[in-house]
Specification:
alpha/beta, Rossmann fold, 9-stranded mixed sheet, 8-stranded mixed sheet, 17 strands, about 45% helix, cytoplasm, one-carbon metabolism, Adenosylhomocysteinase-like, Adenosylhomocyst_ase-like_sf
């Protein structure tokens, strides 16, 4: 459905269902509750135009509600063609009056059209999940750059892209790497990705994990979470890595570590979480077990070399939603989940609301931080990728603990002095 004013969505009839699900998620997002109550009166984002290229989920809807309560003029588009929840998009438009340009299963052409419509909003702050918004500004919409205050980036893949831009001197406005906040990657990436990835795999396949050999490609924070949850389901977990430190850590965490070419011969599941391209490649597929299930939990659909898989196949069909079965020329079958896209969002609902509460609280606080730099006449940040200010990260943790009714100790003046001095030693 199109409207010349402010949206392009698929299913307006699902609006009430979307609202109910948004409100359900809201119950698990107490930090955003606190920030909404704080900022609805302060309005620190008044007249600040924000364009967000994010997964259009119930949790993102509540981020957008909080930003709007803080005064922001926000427009949303999707950061992945298969992650949009159409009922949520409809509810955002009708009930919350937030312009949305996102349709589940939209074509690549539609995807970039929607990004450019979101950029027609002339944002001064961007919110990205994968850096497609920032990339499109630099490639096609450079006229927007002079007014940009800055942007935020939600995911590892996007941070990698943006750091590459900064290294090459191509990045023309500052970005805050929300992904790298301690309250993001320690919890969202580990517990959120771990649970939601397994949720997506189980929903898509209904295959028992217990007793199966389950290979995790990449042992970053996301890979750690996936391995931990797979082990909890009774799977025999294998980890493959290119970083010797992470490989050593995986081994000491109790997992079997080996090259992917060896793991491919024994794996019932192979799940990627690297942020890199073609980590599962043709030579791996040529030795995989019959019936091996492949899935990706990294941002883009390039981690599994799908053209190589197609080149090895003589036939393909879809036995279940979100499952494509490729019949190879030698008769083996390999099963690809969610077309190689983010399995936790394409085959399930993404991260639980409780962890997105912290990630999106960081987004809100970083947007306010950027806006305050402009409103208070402070120097603009350097055109590079910045860490989330530590005081904001700790504020999110403090608010989350308070919402969970957890108290912690504080240092005494004597202890603070001891930690900041060097004179005292062995007595």
């Amino acid at each position: 459905m199109k409207n010349s004013i402010n949206f392009d969505i698929k299913t307006p009839a699902l609006v009430e269902q979307g609202k109910r699900r948004i409100e359900w998620a809201w119950q698990e997002m107490p930090v955003l509750h606190i920030l909404t109550k704080r900022f609805i009166h302060q309005r620190p984002l008044k007249n600040i135009r924000i364009s967000g290229c994010l997964h259009i989920t119930t949790e993102t809807a509540n981020l957008a509600r909080t930003l709007k309560a803080a005064g922001a003029e926000i427009v949303l588009c999707a950061s992945n063609p298969l992650s949009t929840q159409d009922d949520v998009a409809a509810a955002l438009v009708k009930h919350y009056k937030i312009p949305v340009y996102a349709i589940r299963s939209e074509t690549t052409e539609q995807y970039y059209q929607h990004i450019n419509v979101a950029l027609d909003h002339q944002p001064v702050i961007t919110m990205d999940d994968g850096a497609d918004l920032v990339s499109e500004i630099h490639k096609s919409r450079p006229e927007l750059i002079p007014e940009m205050i800055g942007g935020t980036e939600e995911t590892t893949t996007g941070v990698i892209r943006l750091r590459a831009m900064a290294t090459e001197g191509a990045l023309q406005f500052p970005i805050i790497a929300v992904n790298d906040a301690m309250t993001k990657h320690l919890f969202d990436n580990r517990y959120g990705t771990g649970q939601s990835t397994l949720d997506g795999i189980i929903r898509a396949t209904n295959v028992l994990l217990a007793g199966k050999t389950f290979t995790v490609v990449g042992y970053g924070w996301c890979g750690r979470g996936i391995a931990m949850r797979a082990k909890g389901h009774g799977a025999k977990v294998v980890v493959t890595e290119v970083d010797p430190l992470k490989a050593l850590e995986a081994s000491m965490d109790g997992y079997q570590v080996m090259p992917l070419i060896e793991a491919s011969k024994i794996s019932d599941f192979i799940i990627t979480a690297t942020g890199d391209k073609h980590v599962v490649d043709k030579h791996h597929m040529q030795v995989m077990k019959d019936g091996c299930i492949l899935a990706n939990s990294g941002h883009f659909n390039v981690e599994i070399n799908i053209p190589a898989l197609e080149s090895l196949s003589m036939n393909q069909h879809r036995p279940r939603p979100s499952v494509d079965e490729y019949i190879l020329t030698d008769g083996r079958k390999l099963r690809l989940l969610a077309e190689g896209r983010l399995v936790n969002l394409a085959a399930a609902e993404g991260h639980p609301s409780a962890v997105m509460d912290m990630s999106f609280a960081n987004q809100v606080l970083c947007a306010v931080y950027l806006a305050n730099l402009k409103s208070k006449g402070k120097p603009k940040l350097e055109n590079t990728v910045h860490n989330v200010p530590s005081e904001l990260d700790r504020e999110v943790a403090r608010l989350k603990l308070a919402a969970m009714a957890i108290d912690i100790d504080t240092l005494t003046p004597e202890q603070q002095h001891y930690l900041s001095s060097w004179q005292e030693g062995t007595l």
